[in-house]
Design goal:
Number of helices of chain B: 15
Number of helices of chain A: 14
Oligomer: heterodimer
Low-confidence stretches of chain B: none
Largest sheet of chain B: 6 strands, mixed
Radius of gyration of chain A: 20 Å
CATH topology of the largest domain in chain A: CV3147-like fold
Number of strands of chain B: 23
Distance between the termini of chain B: 11 Å
Largest sheet of chain A: 7 strands, antiparallel
Helix content of chain B: 25-40%
CATH architecture of the largest domain in chain A: 3-Layer(aba) Sandwich
Structural class of chain A: alpha+beta
Radius of gyration of chain B: 25 Å
Strand content of chain A: 15-25%
Structural class of chain B: alpha/beta
Strand order of the largest sheet of chain B: 3-2-1-4-9-10
Strand content of chain B: 25-35%
CATH class of the largest domain in chain A: Alpha Beta
Mean pLDDT of chain A: 91
């Protein structure tokens, strides 16, 4: 069954067709929302371009148009960003995931929902949906990027990641089926290591009803609009940062030059992540002030002159002032200049379970979550 | 080495500069118009230097140049090689085949998809094979491309860490296609990031003949004039490599010219940390220097429409030069450029009786130009009455606009809040404001600043780097770093440096993200002297 047949069966007449230009815009928007992490989105973008060039259709469908009983899963990758950059996929990995998942569950997957509206895991599900022939649902599980499998709005609102299937380019398959979401994360991460650094994954099977109740809805549209406006601003020589702020109700929290990058190399051993802190010296309106941003794959917390201004799950983005291009934690270098933009997390990420799962205490900070709106004095 | 004199050339958009040096002393300098084939312009400058200095060519011990040969060939899609392309990676990576995202005309110019092959092979990051190398498939593909390709580019997954598959593939290619087909191995070109490294390797393979011809004709021209000295080319980081090495790695010369200017500025001024501002006829390049070398660009570098991860200096080019046209409405400045009159300044500029107001004319009106530079054939003003007729307010407004443009560019490149020294070089260094520049502690224009780029090519330091991936759970950090340093020194020696003089410039550690364990990448940059 192809994507058109699925939409006909659902009775969907309105959808948005994702062409190459749309892919570029969505990917830029997703890179901004990736809060410095999420992996190099270029791999997903080029892959999706090739899918479109082969004449396959990538169709974006509103979550309200997905039937309550239809089955969707996430598709993407999990593991080492550097390995992804060096060993892109062959395009079959996620087919095999779907095949295995369909076999295991005894019913076919009818839609793809991106796990993240941030980084490589936004264009990748688009490429996969186009290649497999199913629609992409306009939603995701974070409204940003986070490092671990269980750090999703799906999980905190009651959807289990299991079964999740991981595959590599040779067709090795791992199925994690456990009631313990943290265990599922460990299994899949260990599969990634056995595969050479990257797991291609499909999982979090959920019905249309569950998706509507747990996902961050219409976040792909938001990323698209964000990317579109930033590109437009570049063309017209307008301030791209202002576009980001006005669309996301964000804050221009700091502007500075990176004067120190202190990577805590030990963290790779104890936690399996890149951790560290960058220090920015203020410029322009922020001259004389100093900012510190901690990171764990993604930017985590912002302190200005020692005062906390943002904590997870609220978003921290460091953007190039001229182009709005985001600066990533894996490539950040001494001397970069950036504007720090803070964006409130989606309300669905701010529940009690959400703060337990990805709030400041989960990341080892000894303080309670305070929303960025309060920290910024609104 | 035959002699102690050094010849250096720098090819710019308008002029090709040449200098003859003894130690730190500039014996002669020359400016010739840059020609379309580039080589003729260099030879013209060479002849002028030999004539004006009267030195015995046998005393010349080194010839070096900063060049635009490769950049021009790629941008103009001219004289490019047909390239056989091998990626050692299957069953991985096939979702994004080679040449994805390339401009169609450039794809066609190098032979197109007919010669593209993704072969079983390549490595995992930990050294396992993705698949054993499919040697038969390589030989078979070579037989099909025999007589149709000039060069071959081979890229294997994780080859910067584990190069064995690329090296074995090269042996097979050489067996079938022979020595006349040039082979580029990606791990010798660039670092981790498969697609960008592959693009860099393919572009390198496409300009082999261009560089080989340039080097051969220059060697011949030099020899004909009785000079018996090795030829060196400036590479992107501002150090030099032997011309014979450059023939194999022409892609390392895409930023050759601007990089030479930075080195020249450092050499002439003695300042190792600060801002270099190279002002030419049509544009100004601003670079930030750390320990005497330009800071590298952090983002991917696009060459001719193709994304690469070639290391290039982080340069900011702005459309401001001596010939830049000042657009104005009455006494108000509307815009500076971007158009420039270039070397037609002497016909079109107000100072020479022409119709257009240029940056040069504003400088004349401000009275900052007081004498003619030796290398320019004409005086700086022939029609002073035209300059005197300019409204005072317009001159002041234009001067302020030029200053603001320079300040903005300098501020963009600086990484420290403290004022830093700025070195102004190039033929246009005297025609811009130099007093009270924001963020700058002092402006210097050392002697011979107008041929700073050519001087920069003669410095005789070779740069190189190496990378390694270590697991700090199994290997001692200090030992791991020492191992990578040795590799970098070997690379520098292979490029022509005296091994004992090689010193470490930079050590960088990059952890593997998202992975448990203590794996990291160590990157070491070194430089070494060609002369003891």
């Amino acid at each position: 069954m192809g994507v058109r047949e699925i939409l006909a069966e659902w009775g969907v007449k309105e959808y948005r067709r994702i062409d190459k230009r749309a892919l570029a815009e969505i990917t830029l928007g997703a890179s901004i929302l990736a809060t410095g992490g999420g992996g190099d989105p270029e791999i997903g973008l080029l892959w999706a371009y090739n899918v479109v060039e082969q004449g396959k259709e990538i169709l974006l469908v509103d979550p309200d148009d997905m039937p309550d009983e239809a089955l969707a899963t996430i598709a993407g990758c999990l593991g080492a960003a550097l390995v992804l950059t060096e060993k892109p996929p062959n395009g079959q990995e996620l087919f095999w995931c779907y095949e295995a998942l369909g076999r295991y569950m005894g019913k076919p997957v009818q839609a793809v929902v991106p796990p993240e509206a941030g980084g490589v895991n936004t264009p990748v599900p688009m490429a996969v949906a186009g290649a497999v022939g199913v629609p992409v649902i306009d939603a995701d599980g974070m409204g940003r990027a986070f490092p671990e499998l269980q750090m999703t709005s799906f999980y905190i609102h009651g959807v289990s990641p299991s079964p999740t299937v991981a595959a590599d380019e040779k067709g090795h398959i791992t199925i994690a089926d456990t009631t313990d979401a943290l265990m599922a994360e460990r299994i899949i991460r260990n599969a990634a290591m056995a595969y050479g650094g990257i797991s291609w994954i499909a999982g979090y099977p959920m019905t249309g009803k569950q998706l509507k109740e747990t996902a961050i809805l219409r976040s792909i549209s938001l990323a698209w609009e964000l990317g579109r406006r930033v590109m437009e601003a570049r063309r017209r020589h307008r301030d791209p940062i202002q576009e980001v702020i006005s669309l996301t109700k964000g804050y221009r929290a700091f502007q500075g030059k990176i004067v120190d990058i202190n990577r805590e190399f030990g963290a790779e051993k104890t936690k399996g992540f890149s951790m560290g802190r960058i220090t920015l010296e203020g410029i322009d309106d922020f001259k004389g002030h100093t900012a510190a941003i901690d990171f764990q794959n993604e930017w985590l917390t912002l302190h200005v002159d020692g005062e906390v201004r943002c904590m997870p799950p609220d978003l921290i983005c460091i953007l190039d002032p001229a182009t709005g291009e985001p600066i990533r934690t894996d490539v950040v270098k001494y001397g970069y200049r950036g504007v720090v933009v803070l964006i409130p997390a989606h309300e669905r990420m701010r529940t009690k379970k959400g703060i337990e799962t990805f709030g400041p205490r989960y990341f080892g900070y000894d303080y309670d979550y305070v929303p960025v709106e309060r920290l910024m004095g609104d | 080495m035959a002699g102690t004199l050094r010849l250096g050339f720098d090819v710019g958009g308008t002029f090709t500069d040449g200098v003859l040096m003894r130690d730190r002393e500039v014996l002669a300098k020359a400016k010739a118009l840059t020609t379309e084939d580039v080589t003729t312009g260099i030879i013209n400058a060479l002849d002028e230097l030999l004539k004006s200095s009267g030195v015995n060519p046998a005393e010349i011990g080194m010839v070096s140049l900063g060049t635009t040969h490769t950049t021009n060939a790629i941008i103009e899609r001219r004289n490019l090689n047909k390239v056989g392309i091998f990626r050692l990676a299957a069953p991985a990576t096939t979702a994004i085949p080679p040449l994805t995202g390339w401009p169609e005309d450039l794809k066609r110019a190098i032979g197109g998809p007919e010669f593209v092959h993704i072969i079983r092979g390549g490595s995992e990051y930990d050294g396992r094979d993705i698949a054993p190398l499919d040697e038969g498939a390589i030989a078979e593909a070579c037989r099909k491309m025999k007589g149709k390709v000039d060069s071959v580019a081979i890229t294997g997954v994780f080859s910067p860490i584990i190069p064995k598959h690329e090296e074995r593939a090269a042996e097979i290619v050489r067996d079938v296609l022979g020595d006349e087909v040039h082979i580029t191995l990606s791990h010798r070109i660039a670092t981790i990031s498969l697609l960008e490294r592959e693009n860099s390797a393919i572009l390198n393979a496409s300009v082999i003949t261009v560089m080989r011809r340039a080097v051969e004709s220059l060697k011949e021209a030099v020899k004909e004039r009785g000079i018996n000295a090795p030829l060196f080319i400036v590479q992107n980081d501002g150090s030099v490599m032997s011309a014979d090495y450059a023939v194999d790695y022409p892609i390392f010369t895409v930023a050759s010219g601007p990089a030479a200017s930075v080195r020249g500025a450092v050499y002439l001024s003695g300042i190792e940390d600060g801002v270099v501002v190279d002002i030419g006829g049509t544009s100004t390049d601003v670079a930030y220097i750390v320990k005497g070398f330009p800071r590298e660009s952090s983002i991917t570098v696009t060459i001719g429409g193709v994304k690469t991860n070639i290391r290039c200096p982080d340069l900011l080019s702005i459309a401001l030069g001596g010939g830049t046209i000042v657009k104005h409405k009455g006494e108000e400045v509307v815009a500076l450029g971007p158009e420039s009159v270039g070397y037609n300044l002497v016909r079109l500029g107000k100072a020479f009786g022409g119709p257009l107001l240029t940056v040069h004319d504003v400088a004349v009106a401000k009275g900052v130009l007081t004498e003619r530079l030796d290398v320019f054939k004409t005086d700086f003003v022939t029609h002073p009455e035209k300059i005197e007729a300019l409204p005072k307010r317009l001159v002041e407004n234009a001067w302020a606009a030029i200053k603001a443009t320079l300040e903005e560019a300098i501020d963009k490149m600086k990484t420290t809040a403290e004022p830093v020294p700025a070195i102004f070089i190039g033929g246009g260094a005297l025609v811009v404001p130099r007093e009270g520049i924001a963020g700058v502690s002092k402006v210097l224009s050392p002697e011979h600043f107008e041929v700073g780029g050519a001087v920069g090519t003669t410095i005789a330091e070779i740069g190189a780097y190496a990378e390694g991936v270590v697991d700090l759970e199994r290997e001692d950090r200090e030992e791991a770093i020492a191992r990578v340093i040795e590799q970098a020194k070997d690379n520098a020696a292979a490029a022509g440096a005296i091994r004992e003089t090689v010193e470490v410039m930079d050590i960088e550690e990059i952890p593997f993200t998202y992975m448990p364990g203590k794996r990291e990448k160590i990157r070491v940059r070194v430089k070494g002297k060609i002369f003891a």
